[in-house]
Amino acid sequence: VFETELGIDFPVFLDDHRIFEAAILPGTAYLEMALAAAGLAFAGQTVSLANVTIREPLLLPDEGHKVVQVVVGAPEAGKASFEIYSLVEGANGAQDSWPQHASGSIFLGPLSSQPPVGALDLAQLKTSCPQIIDAPGFYQQLAEMGIAYGPAFRGISQLWQGTDQALGLVILPASHAQECQHYQLHPALLDACIQVLGSAAPAFARENGDKVYVPVGLQGLSLYQSGASQVWAHAQFTSPLTNPDGSLRDALQGD
User: Fold this and answer.
1) pTM (2 decimals)?
2) Is the pLDDT of residue 200 over 90?
3) Measured between alpha carbons, how far is 125 from 122 in angstroms, rounded to an integer?
């Protein structure tokens, strides 16, 4: 069991992730916590994440901190489970509770279901994504939808769009770049990679402008190098674009 306290002032970049004015822990933070806990629990081994489900958002208070725990199960047949909880203190004598926010599997080694990822062919991807998108304008559109990203989460430096796909150069702001050495994959950097999805299907976004989409699950995550502060992200929606319940399904790879 690993425990820490999180708030809008620790780590400070969390205050830059707000949806409808509420500070919400980004889904990428759960992935980082799981990777970090797995790295400590299974030191020296390559780990991957699979079948991740984000069950309930974690709202951060304007003052004070939330106690958060990561529980890693014992490994069996090359994999282990992880669960992430936060403490809700009982009021007026009521018992404390621990709602679960995320869960999934930790694989010791690479995911056998995913083929090895080679270097991205940037020239070919730019040909497939010929339309240049203005990054500041993109963030302005998100703000109008209720997703207010502060400087730490405005990592998209350049953006290109194609049919149901997009390519982005993602750079963590200089004020946070030194933090990368303390993370497997900085949550703000990975969040910006996921943001690239927002321009991969602009027509869908216009038709569903009253909806805000946030990550609720992840089929698999393989990290080949930690500590990055700059990456290329290629996002491509799979077919069909939407699931019967209205959720989106996509593929995201980076280099």
Assistant:
1) 0.90
2) no
3) 5
